[in-house]
Each structure stands twice: as structure tokens, then as C-alpha cells.
Design brief:
- This protein has helices spanning 3-13, 20-27, 36-48, 54-61, 78-91, 97-114.
- It has 115 residues and is mainly α.
- Helix 3 runs antiparallel to helix 4 and helix 4 (54-61) packs across helix 6.
- The longest helix has 18 residues, at 97-114.
């Protein structure tokens, strides 16, 4: 998914796409097979259309920090990555509410894409 394709999809988002899971589906985006750059591009598009909270936007845009440098350009399962981060936070006694919210967003988007 190139930034040009995302830019071309932007006009379609203004008509009738009201929730992030619909946006993910419209773009054909898979949270289980995306690079950090693709995740960042979709997050920017969602945020520009006011469909993401600033905290969710920040987490999605900086998701590459969850990866070893050798994996930064590879497609990832972001649901798994954010799940691992949430588990680490819980172990430390942090609720991780924004991480959990972002993880749930990705899960709903993936479920909507598969249905």
C-alpha cells in the first residue's frame, strides 16, 4: 500500500465512512500484514479525518519503536505487537488504557476486514 494509493483513497473516506474499522476495510488494510510505514500512513489518514484520538494516532505512528531495527521495514502482525506491549505494561502495573484502546481498534478493523 503506497502513500499515493492512500492519498487516492482519502476522498472515498469523506463519504459514508464513519468508523475506523470501515476505513481500514475501504483501504484494504490488514493489521496482521503491514509495515510500520503503512501503519503510519493509515494512522495519518484516519487522524486527518478525525477518526483517531491523538493518543491512538501517536501509538500507531510510532509503532516501529516496538520492533528491533532489523525488522522495521518488514510486514508485522500489529495486533500481536500491541498485545505484547499491553502484556508488558500490565506486568509492570500499568493499565495501558491507550495501548489497549489502540489494540482493540486494530482487532475491530481486522475483524471487519475479514467479514
Amino acid at each position: 500500500m503506497s502513500p499515493l494509493l492512500l492519498a487516492g483513497a482519502a476522498p472515498r473516506l469523506t463519504v459514508g465512512t464513519s468508523v475506523p474499522s470501515q476505513v481500514f476495510r475501504t483501504l484494504g488494510f490488514s493489521a496482521r500484514r503491514a509495515t510500520a510505514a503503512q501503519l503510519r500512513a493509515v494512522a495519518q489518514l484516519l487522524y486527518d479525518h478525525r477518526r483517531l484520538e491523538p493518543e491512538q494516532y501517536s501509538l500507531l505512528c510510532h509503532a516501529e519503536w516496538l520492533l528491533p531495527a532489523t525488522e522495521a521495514a518488514l510486514a508485522q502482525d500489529w495486533i500481536e505487537r500491541f498485545g505484547e506491549l499491553l502484556a508488558e505494561l500490565w506486568i509492570r502495573g500499568d493499565r495501558g488504557s491507550w495501548v489497549e484502546s489502540t489494540l482493540n481498534l486494530l482487532k475491530r478493523a481486522e475483524a471487519g476486514r475479514l467479514s
